[in-house]
Structures are given as structure tokens and as C-alpha cells.
Amino acid sequence: GTMGRHQQELRWKQKALSINLKTYGEDHPDVAIDRNNLGNAYRALGQYEKAITYYQMALGSDLKTYGEDHPKVAIRRNNLGGAYYELGQYRKAITYYQMALDSDLKTYGEDHPKVAIDRNNLGLAYHALGQYEKAITYYQMALKTFEDMLGTDHPNTRTVARNLAFAKAALAKQKGGN
Fold this sequence. Notes:
This protein is an all-alpha fold. It is built from eight helices and no strands.
């Protein structure tokens, strides 16, 4: 089943990491990729703390290699945000999502799908905290970008439109005093 496949994947990824560590040493970009992949494998198994450990190592390494505002660094931060989000640590998730957004804005500018994904992620985390107005703001910005770039029928556009509708409903309910 899926679990067995994930376990097998995990073993391959651990092997790849140990080989690349011996070959290249601690802070090589390939080692960071291996660690990120291991993080993804643990995350798929629901082992979020372990995922975070590997994501943190990948992030630390990529910061040394690429510096603060590199797309790879933003990806690592988004992954960390996602793992913290799944742990229910929404404020920590927001910290990482915000850093990813700031970086991606510098890299790609205002109207880019990656920036829209960052904003949707922030929307989800603020939504989870019950900060619906903030969530709505991020969802609306993400939605506009997706509509402009990908059209209204794209799965990303539909997902954000759905998120926005949920946030608006939640806000209306909150304001109704329920």
C-alpha cells in the first residue's frame, strides 16, 4: 500500500543522503536537496517533527550557499511553514510563509503564481487562527493573480476561490455572533 511505498522511499532517500554526505560534505547543495526530500518523505508519513528537522538542515545549508533571497531558500521556508501548519503551529507557519512571500516578491514580482501560492498559504494559516479578515485579504490577492495568470478554470484558481468563500462564510458567522 501507500504506507509501504512511503517507507521504501524513505529508505532510498536516507541512502542517497548518506552517500552524498560522504561524497560532498555537510553544506553541499545536493545534500540540502536530499534533506529536503527526506523532509518531504517524513511529512508524507505524518512525522512532522522529523520533517521539520530535515527542512531546517536544508534551509540552514541553502542559506549559506545561496543567501537570504534565493528561490530555493523560499521553497525550504514554504515547506517548513507547511509542516508547522500541519502540526497546528499556525504562528510559526506564518513566520516561514511570510519570509517565503517576501523573498518571492523580490524574485518574481507581484504577479507570479509562486507569489500567489505564498499568499494562499498565509491565508490558510490566518484562517486557521480565526483571523478571517486577514485570510480574506491574502486569498483575494492570490485569486487575482491566479485568474490573471492561469484563468478561472485552473485547479489553483478554483482552490483559492473555494478558500475565499469559506473564509467569507466564517467571517459572516463570526460577525453574526455565533
